[in-house]
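HOLO CASE FILE
Compound: zinc ion
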Amino acid sequence: MNYLAIDIGGTAVKIAILNKDGEILSFDKYSVCFDKYETPILETVLKSIDIFIEENNIKNFDGICVSATGQIDVNKGAVIGTGGNIKNYDGSEIKNKLENKYKVKTTVINDANAAVLGELFLGRAKGLKNVVMITIGTGVGGGIVVNGNILHGNLGIGGELGHFSINNRGIECTCGNRGCYERYASMTALIKRVEDKLGIQDINGKDIFDRISSDNMVKDIVDEWIDDISDGLVSLAHIFNPEIILIGGAVSNQEDLFINKLREKVKIKVMPNFASNLKIEAAKLGNDAGLVGALYYYLKDGE
Ligand SMILES: [Zn+2]
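Model generated. Tokens follow.
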């Protein structure tokens, strides 16, 4: 059995053929933002699938599994909110369109939830039952696994870990509230703090970490940022009592300067019973997590 796996992000769509073990047999990637979303993402995705099938000479597949950015109603397989940033995407009926066109079962899940399921299937959380994952990037994405099942909530949009407040008098958020976690814990938040304090522009995450050893001010800003991230994780540990908290996003490659420091801070603040056996690790799958997690959801929950 082979499956067409699709990972729809804000800049690109990844398309692959996976076997039931999650091995990637063919893969390609196409831009979805080439005209600033004037062409709706779903239209680009449908065209890209045709190109992918043609170029890779795909004869057939047994199902379609999709991981997609934004708020996804898992029952309808549709986008019901985008966080406000992507034009012509809200309302996209992904499942309907794909099932009508290809006549095979299709499941759709949010990309952050797919990432944690990917880790459960083939990554760092293999065999574990209670897992919290945050992905640190432009925003903060999240996924929560309770007793081996992804926490969907009512519509499938649960686990929105970028938007719980860690400071009710804090920074205003695009969602309308104040002090949301991603205003403090995202890479965007770190970059803004460094740029504001140092009066510079156009620095990126890697530059910041490269500067830590030679610039004490940068070191302090990063330390404060990790402290903020740890505050959120402490609350999540107390709520969900996970065996492991996984950190995704490019910054999780910084073992010494980031993951180890974060682990230390969380362990100090969390109540002792919650700290015992709690692991805090970098996620393992990186770019493939969405594709692999979408398949896991299709095979397990989506039946
Ligand atoms: Zn918010």
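CASE NOTES: The pocket of zinc ion is lined by residues 163, 173, 175, 177, 180 (CB under 6 Å). DSSP finds ten helices and twelve strands in the chain.
CLOSED: yes
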